Amino acid sequence: MLVKTNWDNIMNKLYIFSPGFGLRNISPFCLKMEMALTYLTIDFELIELNDPRKAPKAKLPYMELNGETLSDSEIMFEQLNAITDGKLYNGLTAEQKAIGTAFSRLAEDHLYWLLVASRWLEDDWFPHVDAAFFAPMPIPLRWIIPSIARKQVRKTLQLHGLGAHSREEMKAFARRDLQAISDAIGSKPFLLGNEISAFDFTVGSMLSGILDNKPDTWLSPIAREIDHLVDYTERVQQTIGVYGRIDP
């Protein structure tokens, strides 16, 4: 996919996961980067990479921007803001940036891992993970790697702390996270006010990954029950013209 804008003559490349779970961008971190680049009208090409171990930090997304390789979406955001003379965070006060940063941390360092748990730890949902991530692998790796990867994710969640909790306890964590986001939005169209900001890309992408999963995980109906979240997520995607789901 090529997004045509009018930046410079160097073709920038954003490396993302292949589609899955009814999503074009299987990772909220990939989706938020696509939103940011589109918002900034920077030319870029989307390149699917099935094996994140081939990425510089063994995770996706990563990108080649003006000939420089960047990993981690937060680092990419900071670089994008620098090379566009502050356009990514244009007009935000110090207080708004503080609030946006706090909700980005909530979304990416807590809510995200609840999304991972809802996909990877549930026996009735893991076959969708298996098909999305491991189907292209040759035999016998196709038989071996999914189990190894699932054990690694389970271990990571244990180290994070969330993996020690029951599903019902994780649901309660999720409700509090999602309610906090809803309360922060309130009657505003976006997280920080009337105008969309880079922090909406982070929060909106995470919510898209939760709401637009096909089929639902246990996290999806919880998000739909919370006021504002469905409308807010749709508004963010519609405003930028970039959607997480395959059929917008």
Automatic annotation (TrEMBL):
CDD domains: GST_C_Metaxin. It comes from marine gamma proteobacterium HTCC2143. GO terms for cellular component: cytoplasm. InterPro entries: FAX/IsoI-like, Glutathione-S-Trfase_C_sf, Glutathione_S-Trfase, Metaxin_GST, Mito_Protein_Transport_Metaxin, Thioredoxin-like_fold, Thioredoxin-like_sf. This is Glutathione S-transferase. It comes from the Bacteria. Gene3D superfamilies: 1.20.1050.10, Glutaredoxin. Coiled coil: none annotated. Residues 28-124 form the Thioredoxin-like fold domain. Residues 174-236 form the Metaxin glutathione S-transferase domain.
